[in-house]
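name: query_chain
kind: protein
chains: 1
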Amino acid sequence: MANPPTHVVPIGPPLGATVALKSQEPWVENLSLNLMCRECKEDPPNIVEDFSAGDTICGSCGLVLGDRIVDTRSEWRTFTNDDQNNDDPSRVGDGANPLLNGAQLQTDIAFVGGASAKSRDLSRTQNKATHDKSTKTLLAAYKEIGSLCDGIGIPKNVSDTAKHLFKITVDENAFRGKSQETVIAGCIFIACRQCKVPRTFREIFDLTKVSKPEIGRVFKALEKFFNGRNEKTNAAIVEAGGIPDPNGSGFNAAVESTTPKDLCLRFCSQLNLSQKCTTLSQDIAIRAETTGDLAGRSPISTAAACIYMASYLAGEARTAKDVSIVAGVSDGTIRNAFKLMLPNKERLVKPEWIADGRADFKRLPVA
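structure:
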């Protein structure tokens, strides 16, 4: 008697359900697929893209593997520096300048010498139509800030910061009635402090020819303006449910004032003093501020006296006249400050400086 036929029941979902599940899965590119020549079957394949013919070719046997590929390269090569005929095929201009107003996306009609009169008239008309007085004023101010900063070797980041500060004051009409030179001087002074390259009022005065009292007044006004602006910004952030930056957002003018230690580094460099003498002068300046031996003295006078003392201690003596030329204070002021420091020399100089011979009290001049 033959066995009855058996039926195999598949385990799992029906075939239709499987197809439905596969169709619901999102498409994911299979990055493990490589294009390979079916003749050579080299691994890794030697594939060449011939953009001039639009073909994908095997570099070993020459078999064409694909056609009509898209050329993603630029349409031409541009040699702007070698271009003598002003024939630049580039379709884009310079990047947008955040220091200027507007989107800066307008089209300019160029006029080259030898062109027709119609081209000249079109260029002139377009310049009149797009003329912006505020932009012209900003460009003139930026040019002056750049030339002033370059004149005394201030880094570019300080110049850019001063330009940004000036633009903020112009956009909010904060100092209408003040001369532009005065506001520029104040912006440069604040930018130097923010970028950790402080300059004194005297140096800004020599640079801009704006009087020291006027620089001081505009600095106080700028400090109040920027601090108030930052407070409004932080209040708006808190009101919107955000958390303001604890380190201060925006441009904060309430930065630390210039310290003698900061000035010692620059003055010692101008006097060609060694790193040892520079470090010693900075250490003396810090201790003089802590002990109050030169209380009431300006940072410039304190820094000059510390450099004068450190140069003798380190055996690289500089006269009071030499230091006064660099610091911009009289040699009598330096000597008077040195007389106040001399009785307290033991607490102004670390004992290890004397112990290892890097400094010697016997080298100090008689007050």
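note: The chain has a mean pLDDT of 79.
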